[in-house]
Amino acid sequence: MWVTFSKLCTLEPRLEELHFEMQMLAARYELDEEEQWEAEHGRYHRPVFCAAQYWSGRNGVQERLRHLVGWDRLPPNLNAAARGDQGEESVKGLQHVLDIASAAITDHRSRLAVATARERGNDLLYTAAAYDVAMNTLYRLLPPCHGCSCCNS
């Protein structure tokens, strides 16, 4: 089966939100012709941006992507708790969330083994191929580093 990003977005609409975020980020750091000329002549100073930090830092795109596709995908009912969307009162610490997630993933994987063909429609989201397609699509939108210490740009 050929995996496309649009197919993944159909199965997991929150991927579209990440895609939109990355498009807006790319547009924000894209220079127009005048800014490009000024940058080349040392007159325009772009704001500091670290692509590595934005991608893999705390609550970065990579971390959020892992919860949506691939082997570490959390079942949809746990995604909100893992992100803390339900408020501090409902999440009694990270260990509690991890315990719930671990039990749910174990339960989910055992249910997938006996699921009917109709129920297995979202199995694609749990594959390495799905993660690779989503990661490559989103990573290509990431603007290059500028002014950060990781690449001396």
What does this structure look like?
- The chain is mainly α.
- It has 2 domains: 1-71 and 127-153, no CATH class; 74-124, no CATH class.
- Helix content is 54%, strand content 0%.
- Helix 2 (14-29) runs parallel beside helix 8 (128-139).
- It is elongated, with a radius of gyration of 19 Å.
Shape: elongated
- C-alpha Rg, in Å? 19 Å
Major sheet size, sense and barrel closure = none
- From the N-terminal CA to the C-terminal CA, the straight-line distance is 41 Å
Number of helices: 8
Look at the helices and sheets and give the structural class.
mainly alpha
Please state roughly what percent of the residues sit in beta strands, choosing from under 5%, 5-15%, 15-25%, 25-35%, 35-45% or over 45%.
Answer: under 5%
Number of domains: 2
Uncertain stretches:
86-92, 112-120
What is the string of helix and strand elements? HHHHHHHH
- Number of E-state strands: 0
Walk me through the topology.
Elements: H1 5-11, H2 14-29, H3 33-40, H4 51-56, H5 61-66, H6 76-83, H7 94-113, H8 128-139
Keywords summarizing the entry:
153 residues; mainly alpha; 2 domains; 8 helices; 0% strand; elongated
Summarize the structure.
The protein has 153 residues and is mainly α. The chain is 54% helix and 0% strand.
